[in-house]
From TrEMBL, chains A, B:
Na(+) binds at residue 218. Residues 1-30 form the signal peptide. This is TRAP transporter solute receptor. InterPro entries: DctP_fam (IPR018389), SBP_TakP-like (IPR026289), TRAP_DctP_sf (IPR038404). It comes from Grimontia indica. One of its GO terms (cellular component) is tripartite ATP-independent periplasmic transporter complex. Keywords: Metal-binding, Receptor, Signal. It holds the Pfam family DctP. One of its GO terms (biological process) is transmembrane transport. One of its GO terms (molecular function) is metal ion binding. Substrate binds at residues 159, 180, 217, 242. It comes from the Bacteria.
Length: 360, 360
């Protein structure tokens, strides 16, 4: 091709370039625009399972968008504020967060209900409530005034009741029991005379070993293994207080609204899949860790709380929830919705998965 | 702008157009290329739950790809070959299929093991085997020689044992029992003297009503409701034979390979999410349908097979599986992998979800 010489030719070429860029700006350039989001997670770097959920989500989003949606994950060592995630995403300092809704109950009381509740739904039931009951709509109602969207962010399944230095044979054994059990479940235990305490994770092992505390709950074998509690406490109680702990993805609403529709859908599906995936990963990791724990420490005794203890805990739980419902119409609406859904779906769970497992 | 006149100008404009299209073909046009895939499903049009999984998957893929990946779903009324899905996707007549792996056992015996097995894993366990155990790799090995990829396509959870006209109180009651129960579970029952039959879905109601058959199994309340069996059979037995029925998405390998990487990931994630979503949708639908059935027919009796019946069925199952393993090294590898995974993860399920549900 011969080089351009005349003025006319230069004008023409410029015209072609304008047309070209006009066309591109409505197709290629717009389609190729990269959105870089930041995410603050409550967990430290390389925290297993919980931290894998954010990495899995971000990797799916980036790959599905062909690199147009990039999410940078900052762990707590970076942002220094594990329990500041709500505020940092609300203010727009971060576009997204990964945490758990019940951490915000001191700030926005009704966020308590979107993680898990004592004696509440198991994972398949709670996902039913979120996606086919009123769960997502109610969660949106609670978070909207804070400029936030909240999505399920990974389920642990039934968490264990915890590691105990002594057996719990009756309600009397709870009197004065010093147990690390934070949040609402701690309030339930306190109703029965126990002394719930919160202790920094790094000090838990020593506190349990030296009997500064009599018991503690963490998660389940998958995350308990590396904490080492099985080496120093003989009893591992089955769960009652967190039957389906669902983590959360938080998204700043303005961030959400400036994403094009295809990237909104990519982000929505990536979060949803990462949440389900974490539920399966945690079941797998728990099975592996439980095998390892019991191979090394075959004397670990798995215990269920006796019926009268369970019934007393249930009564205390019911009483505390009634207090919430009495004081706040939105709390009542959420609790009523959960109870109605649980009543309906548990009848199905009982004749399907529960009956099957019992018959094995 | 003045119109183009001279020959030079025309050449120039043409040059600009060539440059323009060259640029576009490597960005906008390539990025905007639409891939139109076809999917044949085993189910009829508007089949609830199973059919929703394909629609959900296709909708997510289209939206996430901004219309670049469009999947046309043909139900059985269109392609006329519900059990020809394997062959139609293998040959490339369709790009994708939605069906169930165990339908192909007459054609490729080892496909039997990728749906669910009597006395096998429940859904959370089986997803663990697929995604963290050897499940996906083994499924790939079985399907690769047929130019097919297979992915989980939606789980029903524990299927009910079926509707019975008479109670089963002992193994003797199975002798001569005429039951609609197709596939491998039917073979297990036949070992104990029952007469498994297969009857077209449209004739099942009449057959059960007129006692041409004594019993039948379908799925669970969510899909059984509209079949009406609860109106004519008094006993609803809990499940043993299909604890985690996983449907399947089939993809022709050449179709998969010609998709760009971002669309492969979009398709992979859309299938994975649609599968999980169906598990939750089916739990929800079962709960709703069970409420409706029992409100209208409060005398339905839910029964569990007695222990000696369960033990006899388990022995027959073990014997038949041993036959498969003895005859075929790949079958043995798959069955050994499933059993080892089940043994490990059931120990976890027992102390978590099972213990929790029993304590409620």
């Amino acid at each position: 091709m011969k080089p351009l010489h005349s003025k006319t030719e230069k004008v023409l070429a410029a015209f072609a370039c304008i047309c070209l860029s006009a066309v591109l700006s409505f197709s290629a350039f717009a389609a190729e625009k990269t959105y870089r989001l930041t995410l603050a997670e409550t967990w430290g770097p390389n925290f297993p399972i919980f931290g894998d959920a954010t990495k899995n989500m971000a990797a799916m989003a980036e790959k599905m968008s062909n690199g147009r949606l990039k999410i940078r994950i900052d762990s707590s060592n970076k942002h220094k504020s594990p329990f500041g995630v709500f505020d940092m995403v609300k203010s727009g300092q971060y576009d997204m967060g990964h945490s758990a809704s019940y951490y915000w109950k001191g700030k926005v009381p009704n966020t308590l209900f979107f993680t898990t509740m004592p004696f509440g739904m198991v994972a398949s039931e709670q996902y039913g409530w979120f996606y086919h009951g009123d769960g997502m709509a109610l969660m949106e109602e609670v978070y909207a005034p804070h400029n936030l969207l909240s999505f399920p962010g990974g389920n642990t399944g039934v968490q264990m009741g915890g590691w105990f230095q002594k057996e719990i044979n009756s309600v009397d054994d709870l009197e004065g029991l010093k147990m690390r059990i934070p949040g609402f479940a701690g309030e339930v235990l306190a109703e029965l005379g126990a002394s719930p305490t919160n202790i920094a994770p790094g000090e838990l092992y020593t506190a349990l070993e030296r009997r500064t505390i009599d018991a503690l709950e963490w998660v389940g074998p998958g995350l308990d293994l590396r904490m080492g509690f099985h080496k120093i406490a003989p009893y591992y109680y089955t769960g009652w207080h967190e039957p389906a702990t669902e983590l959360q993805f938080l998204v700043n609403k303005r961030t959400w609204e400036r994403l094009p529709e295809d990237l909104q859908e990519i982000l929505r599906v990536a979060m949803r899949t990462a949440a389900y995936d974490m539920y399966i990963q945690n079941a797998h990791a728990s099975a592996e860790a439980w095998e390892e724990m019991t191979a090394e420490y075959p004397d670990i005794q798995v215990k269920q709380f006796p019926d009268d203890v369970i019934n007393a805990l249930r009564s205390a739980n019911t009483k505390l929830l009634a207090n919430y419902a009495d004081k706040d119409a939105q709390a009542k609406k959420i609790l009523d919705s959960q109870q109605a859904y649980l009543d309906k779906i548990r009848r199905w769970t009982s004749i399907s998965e529960e009956a099957y497992l019992q018959g094995q």
